[in-house]
Task: structure prediction
Amino acid sequence: MIIVMKNGASAEEIEEVVKHIKIWGAQAHVDRGEVQTVIGIIGDKAEILRKPWTSFAGVEKALEVSDPFKKASRKFHPSDTTIDIEGVKIGGGHTCVIAGPCSVDTEEYVVTTAKAVKAAGAKMLRGGAFKPRTSPYTFQGSGEDGLKILQTAKQETGLPIVTEVMSIDQIDLVYKYADAIQIGARNAQNFNLLKAVGKMNKPVILKNGVATTAKEHLMSAEYVMSEGLNDVILCLRGTRSYETAFRNALDVALIPYLQELSHLPVIVDSSHSTGARAYVSSVAYAGMAAGADGLILEVHPNPCEALSDGEQALLPRDFDFLMKKLDGLKAWSQKEWNRFDKAAK
Ligand code: PEP
Ligand code: MN
Result:
């Protein structure tokens, strides 16, 4: 349920509602918007719905929200969330491209990649030091050595680091090096891990699961947010489908759909959703054209030697070309928007 306060409701009136939510055994989530404050009630007690909310001073209306996600819901938090990762903003009109190798390999490759993607316009560097691999016999990641290489690349380029944490026992180590934490598809519904990262204070890039629905994806975000962390970025990396031409399938309509249901930024991983270099840029472009808040892409200067996912890595020159195309899209969208905006006035 949400309580919508009247425009200009006073701090005391808001406080009174919050106090009663707590007295009646639920949690209050207060979202102070520019004009209106919305108070979300989080709890499962049915009787709280029957309380006389509209008789409180300053309350405009009380609405029942049937969605099981609350903190992630746009109904609880009507304006877009903007997340700041070491000065890099994402969401609420700020777009951000994250690029780098699938796995951290040599310092030379990672630093070369970091410099190349930065020069092309990427704002953050990705790279896995702990790798969730389908086979236990393939490369599993280079652990702390890999995290140190990412740190060196950050020192060389200033790009903040995104890297995956696969289990609760890796949290202390990964948090020493990462600026944002990736939760991969295989852990998208590892609820204990989601709660554990929700207790920490670094932004989380949360991928959808290999076969999760958009609403399940939002429930995973809710697990993180239920522990107090608001900085969650939803990442679409495709889901299993009957099509065998690609590794996964990404429905671009999920971008506006998630943005309608949630205030959280939505980014697209077109590397894992296609699995093949030839299609990565098209899906990235489609994602941005559909309004995504950013991209996360795999780039490697020598894909034949990549320790994982070489077949879907863009070469730095492909990445540069894509970024230039995206600049064109941005300029075009802005021009079209100005025209539309003027016509509407
Ligand atoms: C990755 O980003 O390298 C990765 C393993 O992705 P996903 O969890 O989407 O498969
Ligand atoms: Mn990968």
